Amino acid sequence: MSVRTEVTGAKRIVVKVGSSSLTTAAGGIDPDRVRDLVDVLAKLRSSGVEVVLVSSGAIAAGLAPLGLKKRPKALPAQQAAASVGQGLLVHRYTEELARHGVIAGQVLLTADDVTRRSHYRNAHQTFAKLLELGVLPIVNENDTVATSEIRFGDNDRLAALVAHLVHADLLVLLSDVDGLYDANPSHPGSALLPEVVSVDDLTDVRIGRTGVAGLGTGGMQTKVDAARIATGAGIPVVLTAADRAAAALAGERVGTLFHPTGKRRPTRLLWLAHATEPKGTLVLDAGAVRAVVERRASLLAAGVTGVEGTFHAGEPVDLAGPDGTPVARGLVNFDADELPQLLGRSSGDLERELGKGYEREVVHRDDLVLL
Question: What is the number of other CB atoms lying within 10 angstroms of the CB of residue 149?
Answer without folding.
Answer: 10
